[in-house]
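Figure 2 data, in text form.
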Amino acid sequence: MLGKGILKGMAETAKNFAGSYVSKERLTTVEYPEERIATAENARVFPFLVYDTDNWEKGLRCVACQICEKECPPKCIFIEKSKDKKPDYVGKQQFYPTRFDIDISVCMSCQICVEVCPFEAIKMNNEFELSTDDRFGGLLLDRAQLAKSNEYYHEIHPTEAAEVDARLAEEKAKLEAKAKAAEAAAAKAAAEKAAAPASPTQAKPEGGQD
């Protein structure tokens, strides 16, 4: 029948229109901002920096490798590397960013920075209410504004955050096991060296040769 598809579509629209008066599930809109729709777990807006511990400056996972800055298509990331080093989450001495800025007026939320980061230091936020009347300084976020705790990461992306924590814990366990094995080998070598008999020394004859 000609126009059957159009009629079916109009019937579906009419059903949803009438049903929205009696069923909340058929509502296509909500009274924002008083009412809000829950954000999907895989939603992404702009990047943020993950930190461990209670201090964001000491706990930042970022080591200022600058891979994300180089790979960013719109070039909205600006990083300056420190001259000194500090221990990372596994105790290894690493550089850290003295400056880490993201211009969110330029960022296109492509997530490439997240994909190329080898330290699980940068992730995508789902916060979208970022409008401001300051079109320059207000949209340039520094590292203090970008820093979010690992707990926050678990709140917005629980599945992904759990997988990341498992990988990092496994990596940390391997490094600790390797360090213990090296320490045990060094202790064993030192003990064997201490237990080895001293080589006899030949007494030098007095009065010259016979």
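Caption note: The mean pLDDT is 88.
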